[in-house]
Design brief:
The protein is mostly beta strands. Helices cover 0% and strands 53% of the residues. The strands form two sheets. Strands 2, 5, 6, 7, 9, 11, 13, 15, 17, 19, 20 and 21 form a twelve-stranded mixed β-sheet that branches. The protein has a ten-stranded mixed β-sheet with strand order 1-4-8-3-10-12-14-16-22-18, with no helix packed on it.
């Protein structure tokens, strides 16, 4: 097992791109000074002699954080050999106001306490979001998604999508959202829903709800995953 890290200022107004197809990504609040910090745990268990390497590149408009696999000749490769157990897990401190895209394949993508717009993607891994301040865009193919929206998270729309993965959203009645949901799976809700069926279509039903006074769009869609809209009495904003 190896550990690696990187820390430094990034260009004001730039976006943060985090790509790790070999494990988990955890995003945390990194303060308001425009400083990015990355910590990586690399388990070098490849059966073909390849190694996983943390790479950070800063340009005028992007701060790129990625894990790259290099073969024994020092060449970057994308293929994963059969039986490979190499793994990389990242923790990234995101400075306030720097929009961030984080993407993995089968790993967890978690954002907690982040104060910016986030775009999260995984295939079969889990997505979890809590205590964030900004727009949330998230997509999972088959993995589960759990999103907690604190009071007055943002005035921007939220978009949560999957193919077959279940999506659970926790939100307080003190929030203001226009909710739209669509799936061929089940609706699970603590709020009133107006449901419309679309037989012979996929998704085969849609639902609408207004939370509080209405306002920003909260769109939750899946082809076949179950969708849950759950009520929390108070949202922890500490």
């Amino acid at each position: 097992m190896e550990r690696d890290s990187w820390a430094g200022p990034i260009t004001p107004g730039s976006a943060v791109e985090v790509h790790n197809p070999y494990g988990d990504i955890r995003l945390r609040h990194g303060g308001s000074e425009g400083r990015l910090e990355v910590a990586a745990v690399l388990q070098q268990l490849a059966v073909d002699g390849s190694k996983l390497v943390l790479e950070v590149e800063i340009t005028d408009d992007t701060a790129s954080v990625k894990v790259v696999r290099y073969n024994h000749l020092g060449e970057a490769v994308a293929s994963v050999p059969k039986g490979d157990q190499a793994r990389a897990d990242l923790a990234v401190l995101i400075p306030e106001g720097f929009p961030t895209h984080a993407e993995t394949v089968g790993g967890l993508v978690e954002a907690r306490g982040v104060a910016t717009d986030i775009d999260l993607t995984t295939d079969s891994g889990t997505i979890r979001v809590a205590k964030t301040r900004g727009r949330i865009t998230a997509h999972s193919a088959s993995g589960a998604m759990e999103i907690t929206l604190e009071t007055a998270v943002t005035e921007k729309p939220q978009s949560l999508t999957s193919i077959t993965g279940p999506i659970t959203v926790f939100t307080a009645p003190t929030n203001d959202f226009d909710v739209t949901m669509a799936t061929s799976g089940a609706f699970i809700t603590d709020y009133s829903l107006d449901i419309t069926h679309h037989d012979q279509e996929e998704p085969n039903k849609t639902a609408a709800s207004i939370i509080g006074d209405g306002g920003p769009d909260l769109v939750i869609t899946s082809k076949r995953g179950d969708l849950a809209l759950r009520r929390v009495v108070t949202a922890d904003t500490d």
